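[Q] Does anyone have a clean structure-token version of this?
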Amino acid sequence: MHAEISFIGLFLQASLLVKLVMLLLMAMSVLSWALIINRRKTLNAARIDADVFEEKFWSGSDLSRLYQETNARRDALAGMEQIFHAGFKEFIRLQKQGRHQESLLEGTYRTMRVALSREVDRLEANLSLLATIGSISPYIGLFGTVWGIMNAFIALAEVQQATLAMVAPGIAEALIATALGLFAAIPAVIAYNRFSYQVERIENHLANFMDEFSTILNRQSAAGAQ
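[A] Here you go.
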């Protein structure tokens, strides 16, 4: 009797559609955890890299030398380093063209804004998939539950004398579908909300750096003009 009411036993005796629902929900749960682990590593790395580069930036290093260091590994840049490299590269290019100060700073800021947008897109990758898993998993589980309970009552109607032992396995297998739906949805929703907040904080951090860097370039450009 114990084997019959175990998860494996209920899964094996479930209808084909309920089995497919359970397998789909388990696959979605595995996918969501893979995305959670990947996004957590990416966001932690982005936050640490930003702190390290910002400390180097404000340590008094010469901007030209810092640009040469980042340019040597430009294919591996991301985050704050990428914004700095893109902005300073554009600043030098426009400066060589003899642009006046307003046009120079406007073009530099626009380039850094594009780099910031690309970085945010990189950090937000697959977050929409997490949100989708979190929103649809309960409904998929509910569909499996409704289908399982419907089959249980149809089978119940075909017998002369109904007992709890006859209907309990069908209802149990149906409720497992709902449980699996919640099991897939809850971590995905929590992770999506947390990661969205972290991306917003990192974006604000990068935007503040971009504004501060623009101010430094403004002073440098004004000094050069004099």
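[Q] Thanks! Anything notable?
[A] The mean pLDDT is 86.
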